[in-house]
Amino acid sequence: MQYLILFIMSIICAQCNMLDVYPGYGWDDLRHVDMSSVFNVLNFENTHLNEKCIQVYPVREQKMELVSSIIDVFDSYETDYSSDLFVGGSASYMGFKVSGSYSQNYQSSKKLQREENTIILRNHIDFIMSEVLMSPSCELHAEAKKRLVDIAKYETNNQSAMATYAAQLFVKEYGTHYTNRLRLGGSIAQDDHIQRSTFKTNDSSSKSYQAAAEASFHFTFSLSAKFASSSRTDDSSVHEARKEFTRKVVHSRGGRVSVLNSSIETWQASIEEAPVIVQRGIENLTYIVQPYLLPELSNKELVLVREKLNTAIETFIQMNLHYGCMNRNSPSFNWIANVNDSSCELPKENWQLGGFIQTCIEDHRLNPKCQNFKMLNYYTETDQCPVGFIRHHLHKKIQKENTCCTSYFEGIGTRTIDLYDCVSESKQFRSKIGSLKVANNYVFGGFFTPNKLNPITGVSKCPNEVFSQVSVKNSDISICISKQVSNIDNLPHYGGMYSCQKGNAMNSNKKQCPISYSSHVISALDGDCLLYICLKFDEIPEVKRLPSIILPPFFTIPLFNETSMDVYTVNLTDIDPNTTAIGTSSKSNGITYEVSIAVGCIGSIVLILVILFTIKKKQQCKAKDTKKIYDKI
């Protein structure tokens, strides 16, 4: 078998006469990248600031330990791809090990393992020189603090959409976590790739290959006997086992010299001159919303900001989860999945989709806008489902506006918008000896949005001209449906829909898919309410590239809102009466006295005219309202 050796040497150098690597930055745990500064750690030329925020503890572990692991990126139960990068292990989301699943290293490994059907035998040594901790006395960065205060202001001023938008922008800028601890030093690692079927022949052969990988690591870095192998086997079997390796990838981080061209002792000494981050300690970004860090906010406002931020993080992660079968032996294997589900099993039943309906009801005093939201069923052209289908509630949105005239406040009016899908009253079952076929009427042909490609076609369009593209009003969703098709090849089984508000009618109204179906995020309704669809493919469509990460925000806001981000409420009692107005002086007091009298007279006349106009407008509005009520009766 061809033996490929690929050396990837990433030697990162930095002066360490003065510490220039700090915790306190944001961290995107999906991409494994540092984000903007959350705490005030940008400029530490000021020694006082350094002592206030950072605590450095020398570690100098003279004993460097060899660590071995088996990495199968498609086995999320036994493999934690990024655990060695974090103090105390990597973060998880609802039990899912998706940390780093959009990082460059992870995706490169995943692509290689899929193309070559291999696993990775990794050996690495970390040399920890010092540990840098974030001090509790460190203050938030001014920009991060301002953004959090803005979120609170939007919430307290009943601008929930703006608060959601600002929270999602915060996650885009600062990530999902922040670093509160760094371990500095250097590391060397070697990844040996081997055919999965070869490695898993039996336990004895697996141990031989692990021993061979450790021996190869010793040889590559000219390690001395003090780095003893945990595996015991004879040299001949190790030599034979090494022949089965298909690829070798070497990583070196930290230090000023290449460890391949010098001794391990020389490389270790150079680390003190150029250390890098070997491990990070991270905390959820919501932990920064604390009273001692944000004294401007009340306890209630802190809770609101924490909830908004947590929802924004969850929405970001959920938008980038790809559920699917990760068993490489299954016909339903989906290599782009980063969360394993029950879709390796064969479907026992399926359903049909009868289209969508969106209704709108608004107070009679409101400026009529329901025509922008109402959506008739594509098949019936009414607000009723086709025969054999019933309406299933997916999402409710309530808008509130000032009623009647815009010149003065008369009350709050509501507009209620409800989205329904039409679910089939009957379902098809798989027989004990037969297969389950996709029905050729009322057929679902996929969906797409500006952020999501159609899972059936892999592009932003329907399978063919037989399908009609139906846009869901007041959203970015396009659905492909057809009343009748002749060719059902490559079309998925349909297993219902659910949202953050309503469960799946096909699964006892639970917010999940039936067994053997995978969840697909369609879009975020109202910015943070995710809408899911359940699909099951008999054959997974061929996808050559892993999906790119989808970054927030997940909705747009009107331009006038975007340009008026500050929502300060100023009370007249907050103005200091002793403050001199801008542009005035003692010299102008006598000159402006006569002018002020004239302006006062003119102001009184204008005030009288405004009062008369307001009274007349109220009378017109009441007459208009009476006519609306009469027309409604």
UniProtKB/TrEMBL annotation:
List where the protein spans the membrane.
595-615
Which domain of life does this protein belong to?
Eukaryota
- Record key words, sorted: Membrane, Signal, Transmembrane, Transmembrane helix
Q: Where is the MACPF domain?
A: 1-320
Listed InterPro entries: MACPF
Residue span of the signal peptide, if any?
1-18
Q: What is this protein called?
A: MACPF domain-containing protein
Annotated source species: Adineta ricciae (Rotifer)
